[in-house]
# Entry
Amino acid sequence: MRGMFHVSSVRFKDTISWPIAGTTLAIALLGIMMMISAGGGEWGAYAAPQFLRLLPALAGMFALAFIPLRLLLRYSYLIYALIVVVLIGVDVAGHIGMGAQRWLKVGMFNVQPSEFMKLALILALARYFHQLQPEDIRRFNFLIPPLVMIVVPAIFILRQPNLGTTVILVLVGVSLLFLAGLQWRYIIASALAALAAAPVAWHFLHDYQKRRVITFLDPEKDPLGAGYNILQSMIAIGSGGFFGKGYLQGSQGQLDFLPEKQTDFIFTMLAEEMGFVGGMVLLCLYMALIWMSFTVALRSKSTFGAMIAAGVGMSLFIHMMINCAMVMGIIPVVGVPLPLLSYGGSVTVSTLLAIGLLLNAYAHRNQLPTREKPVF
# Structure
């Protein structure tokens, strides 16, 4: 017992990776700046609510870094199961807003459980692969449990409907399978199966999702309707030029030509006001955070810690890639926020908790948690 508690204890200076924490804080503060801009220079519209969310979320991030790794290992399946139950609750009696049933009303707050499902899936898959031997991943029967872990919540999230979060959840799960050692033949076979099923999947898409795909192929077909968002986004990004129009000086954003400028299209507003240089600074901050995530994964002695760090890094990369490609018209609009920059409570809290998991993996990178049985 004494040895177990000694292994789990870490000192403050050894726990916190200040480069990770500092980069996270820099992106979050840049997000507050953009919230002020989205509110027309006013603090109270978007910046104040976002700041009030950041404070407890940052506290949770640092608190999560101190939890013994063995406790995360022990309760990871239980956390996953609880979030799945909550997703079922959303499907049965969730709060409906903007034509979707994605939220649960908790007091005065609307919580989106699908955002926290990403963390739960990372923990559950990390727990599963921690228990396997390296040769087990090459056997098909060992792939069935993680595939079920990915598919079950994806079905409930897709029913909300929330295609963007579903895509991210599946991509994060599949990327962890690949990093765990999944053979290429399975990946290629799955990709071919997905392509073959695309015509069938088209018929199951909602009308607004079909319109988004059609708009992506030809946004100028309906410039004042379905194509309006993406056309205005591309105009704003292009007009920003190399150095931008200046903070609070973006015409597309400040004159409200740009829809959803505080959420999914926040990168567009930043690119218009700060130009190519500002956009590259933001992307470099994200890439630094992602690079540090994989550095932690490579240095972790336990599979559990390595998979957590890699999962957080992949989640950040996929969010960044999809959002930026979406607002630039490279892929269809799927409603994916930019972590720490976009306005929103659930996505902000879940992202900072994910960074907390990354800090935890960093703090325990030299430890090997026992392979004890989970409580669920």
